[in-house]
Structure formats: structure tokens, C-alpha cells
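Limitations
The C-alpha cells in this dataset are predictions for the assembled complex, not deposited experimental models. Users should treat interface geometry with appropriate caution, especially where small molecules or nucleic acid strands are included. An illustrative entry is reproduced here so readers can see what is and is not provided.
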Amino acid sequence: MRELFTKGMARNIYYGGSLFFILVFLGLTFDTTARIPERAHVEALTESVARGKEVWEEYNCIGCHTLLGEGAYFAPELGNVFDRFGGSREAIKAFIRSRPEQGIPGRRSMPKFDMSEADLDALVDFLEWTSKIRRARDWPPNIHG
Amino acid sequence: MPYSKLALYSGNRLFPTMGREFLEQPTIVKIGIVLIALGFLYNVGMTVLKGRKTVINVVLLTGLVGLAVMFLFAFYNPDNLVLDKYYWWWVVHLWVEGVWELILGSILAFVLIQVTGVDREVIDKWLYLIIAMALITGIVGTGHHYYWIGTPEYWQWLGSVFSALEPLPFFFMTVFAFNMIFRRRREHPNKAATLWAMGCAVMAFLGAGVWGFLHTLAPVNYYTHGSQITAAHGHMAFYGAYAMIVLTIISYAMPKLAGREAAPPRAQVVEMWGFWLMTVAMVFITLFLTGAGILQVWLQRYSDNPLPFMVVQEKIAFFYWLREGAGVVFLIGLVCYYASFIVGRRQAGEAAA
Ligand code: HEM
Ligand code: HEM
Ligand SMILES: [Fe+2]
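Predicted assembly:
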């Protein structure tokens, strides 16, 4: 019995299709990476912002928070926290500094991090820079993230 | 131990973790992962070279090579958060919705050949079709993570169209598994392995296919991104596809390694209890998290008077308690699963005595 759809045809679809879409994806990647610098305002990506990202990673803030919707879902979104705090760097710093050592009973609470003033400044620079990234439809839908 | 001292105690200065979700391993562990992946690749590669070169082998090898290659992007951590996120997904998405699907498909195909005795030609054709669909939809489908992270707007429709087709390979895996079982040429004594193989196909389709589709279209994802809906999908997809395929091959291979076709019947019954408890518990975990997610999205993002995150979390706490209960059932299932090995060994011992 002759088969209409043979194994060879399936194999060719696999190799041909995959190769084609890998190339398409690489092309799109090329275009996207060319556009990212402008959307992310690289001119404002200072050394302090870069240091802030390191601090963010060192203290593993992503272990509780989301940043632009990615991370853990235990604590508030921080991609727009700069706007949520009314663009006040001092308010964010005060919040991070004033976490009680023992946590807040009966509530999820954020740990107290003892970081240097310089690190805290860099961290807030990073959060401010992040809030200005040009995101499609200005995600998140509202200020609460 | 206080969270704030974690970095200090774990020696973050010496072994920086780069603190990115899922890629938290210290750099030295990441290098270890690469070495282990390469070692495994060498092992499987040499085995294939010495043995028969089948389609399944080649697909498995391609998947393993892809796994190792994509992981290399874990070492790239640029200062620019948008670029960082862009390539972070090359590890996370292109693993679970790309190269790992080749591994999943080939292991499933292997076990199905063994337990059903169906002609290899037929199974090979299915396997090629499934992995073709996986890569054709899944590569550009990465776009469903590029909607809101600072990447260009065109990803909204590219990601939506391609990822909406991503359930297809999972759907075909289910059809394939059941088709082979119905056409089986023999009754394999390892009932448990057969059950795992079918369950894996079904749960992968539900978790990845159905729950993935639920939030993959950009207009929906605008509201659900980074919510409990994501957690619901993540749990069922991971368990259904990648936890269950591992349990499938263990179930098939462990008795073989002990020199028999299948575990004794009583051990298989205990193992199947483990299967049902864990799998049903996972369905409920997913449903409860989905309930939490729908409420969260509604209260925090969709209603006319959106509420702050922490306020919403208190309101949905009820679902977390239900979900915790389902988690306990899951653990009982896991205990059954482990117990099945002990029962198996005892029975084998009795039979030998
Ligand atoms: C049975 C008891 C379990 C409990 C109590 C549990 C609990 C959790 C919690 C609290 C999180 C973090 C959620 C957050 O970010 O806020 C999480 C994440 C996750 N869990 Fe589980 N889990 C369980 C079982 C499993 C199983 C069996 C799997 C898969 C085989 C799994 C896969 C995952 C994955 C992939 C994530 C990350 C999800 C994401 O980032 O969206 N979990 N789990
Ligand atoms: C077995 C295969 C799959 C696994 C293991 C898996 C697992 C996951 C996990 C763990 C996440 C959370 C990532 C994070 O922390 O941000 C995620 C996100 C996501 N997955 Fe999957 N997934 C699979 C297949 C699919 C498929 C087939 C689709 C689409 C049809 C899909 C659609 C999505 C979407 C849209 C998100 C982003 C959610 C958000 O915006 O927060 N997934 N997946
Ligand atoms: Fe994905």
C-alpha cells in the first residue's frame, strides 16, 4: 500500500521548518536588539544604574518580587514602583530602610537589608531607570502593577 | 536564617549567583551544569554510536545538544535589563518549549514502542511531525514573553499567532500516545509505565497546551502577566511534561535494571496510587491557583477600582489554603511513589527466598 504521507516527508518538514524559523527568529532578534537601546534609554544607563542592577541581583529581590511581570509573585511589582511612590527616591529609600527587623506580624513582610548608602542609591537609580523603559501599552495596566 | 544575610552566608561575593529567576545557581555551579550536560551527552552519544542509530536516538541527541547550547545564554548577563530579559528567555522558553520537547517526544516514543510493540516506522513518523510542530511554533513563539518588557510592539502579534499554535504538538502527543496504546500488539506487564506514559501526554497537553493557551494571547496576557495564572500554568506544565516524563522512564527502566520486565504487581499498584494522588492533586493545585489568579487579575488589574497588590493578596488567601491542602495530597502521593520501590524490593526478595 502506498502511503500518502511518508516518514521522509515528515522528516523534511522537521528539518526545513525548523531551519527556516530559526533564521526568521535570528532576523527578528537582530531587529529587536537594534531597537532596544533607544527604548531602554541607554544614554541614561549610567554606571550607578548598572551597579544598582548588581545590588538587585545580590540581594535576590526577584525571589519575592516581579520586575516587569517576571519573577516571584509574593510581593508587589517593582517595574513601576518609582511611579507608585510618586517619583520620590526618598520615599523608596525610606521604605527599604524602615523594614522592621522582626517583620510585621500576621502579614507578609519584607526583610530588612543593611546595605550601604551608596548601594541603596544605586538600587533606586536602577528602579528609576527601569520605570522609564518604553513598554508596549505602558504595561502594567495600572499603578498597582 | 534572615533573608537579608543570605547573600553573605552563601558567599555571594565569591560565587555570584547573578540573582535571576531560575538561574540562581552560582557561576561555578552553572559551569558544573555544563560539564554534567556534556558528560551526559558524551555518554548517550557514545551509546548511540555503538548501538543502533534510530530516529529516536537522533532526536534525543539533538535535544540534548540543544539543551547544552541554550544553557550557555545563562552566562550572559548584560547591564541593560531589557537585553538581559530578552536572552534570559532563550534559556527558559527555548528549553521548555523548544529543545526539551525533543527530549520529551523521544523518550515518550521510546517507551511507547517498548510497551506497545507498534511498528517503529509509524512511531518515527509521528515523532518527526510532533517535533516539527514544536520547533516551528515554539521558536518564534518565544515572542509571548516579549510583549511588555521593553521589546518592540510587533512581538504582540508575532508572539500571539505562533504561541497560539504551540498547543498543537502537545495535542498530537496525546493523540499519538492513545493511538499507539489502542493499536498495541502485546500486553506489556509493566502497567505502571504505560499509565505514566499516557498520563504524561495528557497532563502535558492540559498544562502546557490548555493552560498555556489561556494566557498566551497578548490582549489576555496584558492582564494576566506575572499573576497567579502564570503560577498555575507553570505548575501543571512542569509536572505534566517534565516531571512525568522522568517518572515514566524511571518506571520503565528501574525493573529492567534489576533484571526483570516489570515490578511485582503489588508494587505496581502502590506506584499507581502514587500516580493518581500526585496527578489529581496537581489538577487541583492548578485549579486553585487559577481561581486565585482570576480574582487577583480582576481585583488588581481589571475592575474599575483596582486595589493594591498586598490588599488583593489578603482577599485571595482562601485559595492559597485550598492549594496548600492539595499540596499535602501531592506529598502523600509522592510518599506512595517512593514506597512502591520498597514494596517492589520486598516482594522480589520473598519471591527469591
Ligand atoms: C506540592 C507542593 C508544592 C508547593 C507547596 C509549591 C509551592 C510553590 C511556590 C510557593 C512557588 C512560588 C510562587 C511565587 O512565585 O510566588 C512555586 C513556584 C513554582 N513551582 Fe511549585 N509547589 C509545589 C509543587 C510543585 C511541583 C510538583 C512542580 C513541578 C513539577 C512545581 C513547579 C513549580 C514551578 C515551575 C514554579 C515557578 C513558577 C513561576 O515562576 O511562574 N511545584 N511553587
Ligand atoms: C511543557 C511545556 C511548558 C512549560 C514547562 C511551561 C512553563 C512555564 C513557566 C514555569 C512559566 C513562568 C515563567 C516565569 O517565571 O515568568 C511560563 C510562562 C508562560 N507560558 Fe509556559 N510552559 C510550557 C508551555 C507553554 C505553552 C505551550 C504555552 C502557550 C500556548 C505557554 C505559554 C506561556 C505564557 C504566555 C507564559 C507567560 C506568563 C506571563 O506572562 O506571566 N507555555 N511557562
Ligand atoms: Fe514560553
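Some entries come with short summary sentences. For this one: Residues 265-302 of chain B form the longest helix (38 residues).
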